[in-house]
Amino acid sequence: KWLSILLLCNMLCSCGKTQQPANPDMEWWREARFGMFVHWGLYSVAAGEWKGKQIDGIGEWIQNFAKIPNSEYEKLASGFTMANYRPEEWVKLAKNAGARYIIFTTKHHEGFCLYLSSVSDFDVERTPYKGDPLKELVEACRKHGIKVGLYYSHRQDWHEEEAAVMEKEYDGHYGKPKSEVRPDADKYINEKALPQIKELLTRYGKIDLLWYDTPMDLTEEQSRAFVNAVRELQPECIVNGRVGYDLGDYGMLGDNEMPCAKVSQDLEMVATMNRTWGYKKNDHDWKKPKDILCSLIECASRGVNYVVNVGPKADGTIPQPSVDIMNFIGEWMKTNAESIYGTTANPFNDNFPWGFVTRKNNTLYLHLLRQPAGNSIELKGMLSPIEKAEMLSSGEEVSFSCENICKLTLPDSLDYERVPVLKLTCKEPVH
Ligand code: JFZ
Asked: Which of 363, 60, 1 is nearest to 214 (CA)?
């Protein structure tokens, strides 16, 4: 008997949140589980095309892929009208979908600032827009209770390293730069990047997340300087893992990398809705709304945050398929969000053919992506019997019997296109 109590305690302690190191600043992020990325910049004006030619690859990389010199690339600024920019509509789109935070590109690899910078004149002042789009977005987020994340490319800045970018072999994406003509990182860090981080963290009120990207050849000391800047200026602001050397507050999954079992680390997955982050007018390869919803659920079932991207056009409108996807998720979240927010990973050792599982204390949420064989579900290894089984969105009760194995018989009329969630309440924490 004592042995089984000991084993039970051991299992309780090794699961879900209890493994995370205590960090109160991470609490909102762990609770959120879902965010929205916004990639917006001069590449949104080019929209995947240069001099009438379609340029392959992700849209925000167009300057690099098409080898566009600064003098020509800069001209895109006059087309960056933001004429229909309604930041509050963006925030509402995110909020209605159930996203709890927004990550906004304040400066991507192209080097162009989506805010008024005193450090660089390659900023929104060169556009027809009168105002500071970042300030307006932050204010809208605050008004609607959405957490603010700022993307900042802290090593790659093609505007500062034109000669390197124009070189054919420049490969900045994953590897270290090959070019000899890349400028000294320290100069860029001290004279541009850190001063701009200071602007971002002192001019816009409370920032919740600083999202760095592609550390490349930075030394550990240099990466640490970017973490320290945040700690110093806004100690409660969290930092993502791509700052380099695992110095961030949470880690990162690569493209299409999904762990097949629960993870004990704080991780985030970022994903596109088509094949690009920045807007490309000829990318019509949209994922299905249900598939995006499934990714959100799958991430939650692994204990991972999911951040889905939108790439607005130069005038500030978000492509309709992205709006449709966000609204589809929102429709589902209206009645099912409690199976996502604040949950931890699937506590079972099994993966199930019918879908994914999340858990919150004594409650299990079974996300039914497809009809199970025999219209019934068997759960092995429950530590306490089920007390109540119901469909989350309708409250309809579901019949079950528990001996060694719990067996649930599903209602006949479930619409699996809308991913019904079966909610199981148990006596004690499961697993
Ligand atoms: C980076 C950027 O280069 C890209 O333009 C976009 O902003 C994306 C969100 O982030 O691209 C990466 C960086 C790292 C990985 C994948 C894409 N990775 O580690 O798998």
From this structure: 60
